[in-house]
Fold this protein.
Amino acid sequence: MALTLLLFFGSAVLIYFSCELFVNAVEWLGKRLAVSRTATGTILAAFGTALPESVVTFVAVAFGHSPAEREIGVGAALGGPLALSTLAYGVVGLTLMGSRRLKVRRKDALDVDCRQMNRDQGWFLSIFVCKFALGLVTFPGKPWLGFLFVGAYALYVLKELRRDERTIDEHELEPLRLRPKDTRPSLLWAALQTGLALVIIFAASRVFVTQLDAIGPWLGLGPQLVALLLSPIATEMPETMNAIIWVRKGRENMALANISGAMMIQATIPTACGLFWTPWLFERPLIAAAAVTTAAVLALFFMFRGERVTGKRLSWASALYLLFVGALLLR
């Protein structure tokens, strides 16, 4: 037990510091690729940090040797959007409320493109509702619909890359960690540091998930509940850590863009994998998780639409997750 707890907390610390390395690299990568500052968060950062949870789903459903293993994959595919739409936004909100330890001052006026964030929530909601509905029915040819979800993410990427917005100014960027004395590091060095950071994030996330799998039985949780409740906390940690780091730098728009971009990946790619290799049918806990996710995103949609975004209002998103967990454990 002592070793499990040591690995649990040690891997969490390693994820945070590797995320700092990743954020530093991906900002330079976006600059060298001439990608807009928001698209750097929604596409480059989100794609990298969404790899752990996507791999968890893919391996479970494609290479699982039992129905239980495939159920874990489906649970992870639902747990990811749940954790992002509640915990991730909630943590960002709490950070924006001010933290001496994180050296973040309270902000009432946020540097956030509410109109764009509102559109992102609308995109996610329309796709997620389809994902939710498909988990309630069965019919011939259902697996082929997985290609539609892959296509939906491709359209989202094209939309983001065509965004008319300036790139990050070089004077705003910290020196690349691998080239601290180089004022204009090349694309190769930025890509190399990005890849290195992702390898560390992936390895540390796998260790974290493994420890959660061991902690789950101590708490009396079955495999599907572990996949739904605990594993997403680990696999979504990189997005949350990235968001905190960007908030500390005063770039709230990139922080929230990273989360919304990761949500788009979670709504499409793991869903496609589930449709390809499983019946994609939801039991009651998964239906409840999908319902809570829908409610959280609807609240975010109207919050951004009314441009009434504050740290305090975002922090309430985490309450939905806690209520969901409490109701599920009591049941």
Summary: The mean pLDDT is 81. The two ends are 27 Å apart (CA to CA).
